[in-house]
Amino acid sequence: MGKRIDIMDLRQLIRLQQSGESNRSVADLLQVSRNTINGYVHRIKAFDLSYGDLLALDDASLYDPFPKESEVDSYRYRELSQYFPAQGA
Prior knowledge:
There is one protein chain. With 89 residues, this protein is mainly α. Helix content is 64%, strand content 0%. The protein has six helices and no strands. Helix 2 (23-30) crosses helix 3 (34-46). It starts with 6 loop residues before the first helix and ends in an 8-residue tail after the last helix.
């Protein structure tokens, strides 16, 4: 998942998905990459709740399951580092 969006954008993303907007259009409206939106939509679907139920959650309950940006970056770093030799090796 790319950049971590803030809670207001997350709620807006859910509302736009609820109204049938495409991921591409949501990305354009929120001015983030489509990959970021795709990642959030994937995680939103994993909640297995309706959009209305998701919007009824308090901010912490809705936002906490999404990884912090540093967690995403460190995961990606670990994944990519296997393809590059360690410096000095």
